[in-house]
Known about the structure:
Layout: H1 2-14, E1 27-28, E2 30-33, E3 40-41, H2 63-68, E4 73-74, H3 97-108, E5 111-113
Antiparallel strand pairs: 1-4, 2-3, 2-5
Amino acid sequence: MLACLLVCGVLFVSAQGYEKGEAIPLSYAKVFSQHTRLAMPYTSLPFVCAPQDTALQRTWLTIDQDLLGDRPVQSDIQVRALENVECATLCSKAWSVSDGMEAKQLILDDYQIEW
């Protein structure tokens, strides 16, 4: 029960509220699968749109983050609190046949994106 109180207390303290229209930061790190130890940076995939900002905002890494492929990058996708957006194009990029085959293989291998 003490562990539950500690965890609940940490979750309660770390919760953050946002005002209407306030930007909510969105970061992404890696693509990984539970079936393999191979993780890769999300932006290393040839078929994803790289951030428009040329100066990528990266965070400092610890040794285990670097070894596990955790390289958080600030996304340029805009998410605002309490603002409904029905549909918006996030990026546009042409795919080659090999890009499609690689994406299909990642899906079959159960890869996921860590946001």
